[in-house]
Amino acid sequence: MPRPLDVELARPRLVDRLRGRWCRPVTLVTAGAGFGKTTALAQAVRANLLEPRGIDAWVTCGPGHEDATRLASAILDALAAERGSQAGAAEILQALQRKAPLDVCLLLDDVHEVPDGSPGAELLATLARALPATAHLVLSGRVVPGLPLARREAAGEVATIETADLAFTGAETSALARRFGRELTEDLHGWPALIRLSLTAGPAASWRYAAEEVLSRLSAPTRETLAALVILGTATAAEIGAVAGAATDVEHLVRTVPLVDRLDDGRYRAHDLWASVLPTAHMRVKAAEVLVQRGELAGAGRVACRAGDWTLLARLAVELVRTTLSVLPGATARRWLEAVPAHQLQEPAFLLLTAAVRHADDFTDPAIDCLVDNACARWLEAGDHDGAAVALGQAVITAHSRGDLTRLAAVAQRAQRLEARSPVLRLLRHSVAAVVAELAGDPETALTHLAQAPTSEVPQALAVSTTRFHVHCLALCGRGQDAAELAGRMLTGDLSRRHVATARWFDGEPVEFQGDDEDGTARDEFVARAFHAVIAASFGETTAELSAEQDNPRDAVLTCAAQAAAAVTRGDEELARDLYKQHLARWPVDVKVAERHLRRFLTLGYVLSDELRERWDSTDLGPSHRRARVAGRAFLQARQGDLRTELPAEHALCFLPLPWSAELAARQAARGRTALGTWLADRVGPAAHRQFRELARDPGLAAGALKLLATVPSPPEHPIGIEVIGPMRVTRNGLTAPAPELRRARVRQLLGLLVVRTVITRAQAIDLLWPDLDPASAARNLRVTTTHLRRLLEPGRTAGEASYFLRSDSESLRLVRGDLLTVDLWSFHELSDTARQSEAVALWRGEPLPDLTDLCEAEIARIRERHVGNLLALGELRLVTGDPAQARHLADRALDLEPFEPRGHRLALAAALRARNPQRIEEVRARVLDSLRQLGVRPDPATEILLRQAVTRS
Q1: Of 410, 520, 677, 756, which is most buried, counting CB atoms within 10 Å of its CB?
Q2: CA 362, 367, 369 angle in degrees (round to 5)?
Q3: d(CA 595, CA 573)
Q4: pLDDT digits (tens, 9 = 90+) for 657-670
Q5: Which of the 8 DSSP states describes residue 715?
Q6: What is the layout of strands, in order, in the sheet containing 729-732?
Q7: 213: Cα within 13 Å, side-chain hemisphere
Q8: Of 316, 211, 226, 208, whose CA–CA distance to 268 is shortest?
Q9: Mapping DSSP to helix (H, G, I), strand (E, B) and coil, where does residue 435 land?
Q10: Taking the CB of residue 851, how many other CB atoms lie within 10 A of it?
Q11: For residue 271, which of 211, 204, 182 has the smallest C-alpha distance?
């Protein structure tokens, strides 16, 4: 936000108009250059600091804000909100809601910098449609992007301030003239900037003459300083000096030249009117360098376009593609291409930019390859290897998006002709060499190249593509832990989580998988489906089958493994063997690339193919593949009666389809070892029991399978619910069940302890429930109470049969989480963690765990505190969605539990103010003031704002 001008005319009528922004969702301020839009907004913001109605957040838009992510990031910064890697409308709306119950006004100045139809404009449209009730939007600029405001306008929710409103009145013009001690000799029709300029220059025939008069008084260095600021738009003193070519006194410029001001963040800005009278073209190259250094390629391109310097724009086009690749800002690129004369569009840089735009629209477009190849060839012919490297980088991204191995190989051959000087060139050389090595079945050599690739020195898009391939090659070499570490360190967000989880699973660690590859290419989806099919088999599940027709060994392996895993899961092991035979007939084991990809699912091939087993028994494998081979050997040895190999349960799950891991568990159980079967039943759930029952029909496996069924508890027929928030009760199949066991206080207390802590040692239970009894008597009471508790949870279970929900050993008792057991307190915490406050609040039936008031005082206090937080968060949400009555009700409920909670006071005040009920406002205000008096403290700033409004409204 700009600081006040040295001679600034107060404009109370506009400040009053703009104060209305707190009463309407949207305010539009539109007028041409020089009509004082920014000054009026700044005065309104400063007035709000004196008598605050809410929080103002200011954003000055620039050329780069046509990009939605950059604009969203700027808005989140203005709101002092945290932002993730991909900021967007959802994050902004959440940030606005989090300001509730205070109103917040988002002011976007110079919004004409966000072109119609750009991603930035779409972001603003989304915000305008979905503004919370406590949020307000002010858009100020020469024009405003077309926004969907018709419905709001019809409802009277949009205020407009236009040129006629912003123009100086005769009285304002006279007042400013008196401040300058001058008279205005020309009717400038109330144009504020021109009036100020003319008064600064003295009597003049026209504003242009006045501007030239001001310039004539400046020294040459000062004029160059002004020109540098004009071409940069906004800049620091150091940036201005870099463009002007000398040390500059920018503060002197601000003091002596009208329409130049200093912003709150220390940068400077010159009004656009100076651009029409001050030559700046001679500075365009240095200005572009400064703008590029601070990441404003769009601004640099505008400088080049205004000067008609297509050579400079060509260099910027290469930089734009180099630094963005698959995330190209399409609106910027298209605007540049539209500005370039037709005869210049055949230059290599603009061919490349055209290809990048086409890739952003549709990466399957065959014209992309021709455009990139043409640009690359022209650059190589001219000896420009840096430009050629960027073109090949785009070629790699496009080919990778398509999964086009032939194209990647062709790009690799071209990359060998490049002289590796820049980081991008070096990365490209090593990356394509790695691709060639991997396609030749030599991922170790690929890793040698990838280790030398300077991923930390190149744009993120290119680094991500190279890192993903690096992770893939590590997995091919059986180095799952290294692959997971690299993916976790170098990738971000869902992409990182997916790669880490997959690498860890095939290293023998049964991790949880979350989300799908929604933003990936068709090939990414195919690979993900293949891996999902193999992993699903470990849980006894089958997925939609992949197409059997694949024209390359890499994808053929994925299809073969997915289909074989599904066949084993369905109990058709012979079909699975045939699938591997058919695959090896087409892609023999001597085809290196095919054999290396088969190792990704090594246990399947080891068990189902004698040929692969013989090959891999004599091969030096990587760590992950050695673990998979051990799993396969252990399973085959068990079938021969040899159970000496102790296979970790985790490896049995990760490397074996469920029919095989369950068979191994049954064979072990027949020898008295039930640990694997128990672990599988806990981890896999009912599918494990279904598999045990299936194995019980096999005479050779029946003994072990039946032992597991007797030892490992099977799931009950109906789901059980335990409710401890309020009076304790138990439900079966959703209906309250008769539970005479709940009449016993110790049963209620033991169940409550297990709900709160999940696992409790026998010693802890005895100390808490029978502290005064001798050890033998207390242990006997615990056994009796545990028996009653088992009967309460599973009344139909046969005596002597293991309990499904309540597990015990010599040391401890534990309540087992699962789909068949719901506990309102667990759900309460889960819903609270995921911001589903409405559902969490609905679970509250009264004070939680009333039988444990003395035993779990701290835990109960934390539950109550969380409930108050949920009530207030939900109340704030109701407030921002326009329901002050419900917000008031929720605030009252929270304050009944925590009478001195400041957040509750703020919500109660805001709800009363929003409801416009003077009596209610005064009641709430009195309650808040009384609480503050009892505590002996002053209100915090946010509460102070609301209390001031309460005085005015009541």
Answers
A1: 677
A2: 95
A3: 21
A4: 999 999 999 999 99
A5: P
A6: 735-736, 729-732, 720-723, 821-823
A7: 16
A8: 226
A9: helix
A10: 19
A11: 211
pLDDT at position 932 over 60 = yes
> Is 478 in a helix, a strand, or coil?
coil
Question: For the purposes of burial, counting CB atoms within 10 Å of the CB of 543, is it exposed (0-12), middle (13-18) or buried (19 or more)?
Answer: middle
Position 247, amino acid: A
Distance CA 802, CA 790 (A): 10
Amino acid at 375: A
Which pLDDT tens digit goes with each residue over 683-715?
Answer: 898 799 889 989 999 999 999 998 988 788 877
Please state, in angstroms and rounded to a whole number, the distance separating the CA atoms of residues 259 and 240.
Answer: 17
- C-alpha–C-alpha distance, residues 234 and 282, integer Å: 18
Half-sphere exposure in the Cβ direction for 544 (13 Å, CA): 5
List Cβ neighbours of 496 (8 Å cut-off, separation of 6 or more). 487, 488
Residues 48-81 have pLDDT tens digits of: 877 788 899 999 998 889 889 899 999 999 998 8
Between CA 515 and CA 538, with CA 536 as vertex, the angle to 5 degrees is: 130
> What count of Cα atoms within 13 Å lies in the side-chain half-sphere of residue 147?
27
pLDDT tens digits along 786-818: 999 989 998 877 665 678 888 888 899 999 888
Q: What dihedral angle (degrees, nearest 10) is formed by the CA atoms of 779, 811, 665, 576? A: 120
Where is 951: in which H helix or E strand?
Answer: helix 941-953
Structure tokens at 186: 């020309």
Greater confidence, 425 or 471? Answer: 471
Query: Token pair of 390, please?
Result: 């960027």
- Distance, CA of 928 to CA of 909 (rounded, Å): 8
How many helical (H) and strand (E) elements, i.e. helices and strands, does the chain have?
48, 15
pLDDT tens for 159-203 read 999 988 988 888 888 888 888 777 776 666 777 877 777 777 655
Task: Give the sign of the dihedral formed by CA 42, CA 46, CA 49, CA 52.
Answer: negative
Q: Tell me which amino acid residue 634 is.
A: A
One-letter amino acid identity for 343?
H
pLDDT tens digits along 572-625? 999 999 999 999 999 999 999 999 999 999 999 999 999 999 999 999 999 999
Residue 31: its pLDDT value, please?
87
CA distances (Å), 64 to each of 60, 323, 342, in order?
11, 14, 25
E strand segments, 668-719: none
Average pLDDT, the chain: 88
Higher pLDDT, 545 or 14: 14
Cα distance between residue 534 and residue 406, in whole Å: 27
- Asked if residue 97 lies in contact with residue 132, where contact means CB atoms within 8 angstroms, the answer is yes
Task: Report residue 372 CA to chain centroid gap.
Answer: 32
Measure the CA–CA gap between 38 and 61, rounded to whole angstroms.
12
| Residues 182 and 202: beta-carbon distance below 8 Å | yes
pTM of the model as a whole: 0.56
Is there a contact between 724 and 859 (Cβ–Cβ < 8 Å)?
no
Q: Which residue, chain included where needed, has tokens 């068709």? A: 522
pLDDT of residue 207 exceeding 60: no
| The token pair that represents 251 in the structure block | 């503060």
